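User: My collaborator sent over this chain with a note saying "see what the structure looks like." That's all I know about it. Can you take a look?
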Amino acid sequence: MKFSVGEKVSLQVPLPYLRTSDSISMLRPPDLVSLDEIGVIIGIRTDDLVEVQFRRGNFLIPTERLQILDK
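Assistant: Without extra context I'll predict from the sequence alone. Here is the result:
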């Protein structure tokens, strides 16, 4: 699936941890983002990793764990 900046997404499945998108990444607990929370893609790092802005921070999320919400 192809993602682009500005798309709204949500998590499909829970993650074991969240990795921040700071210059020095930190691992954070997975309960900072719930499955029903809507995030916005603010950057594309690689083909399988995107930067998503959620209410509690910006995180690097694998694309296979995300679903695009209907426009």
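A starting point for your reply to your collaborator: Residues 8-68 form a domain with the SH3 type barrels. fold (CATH 2.30.30).
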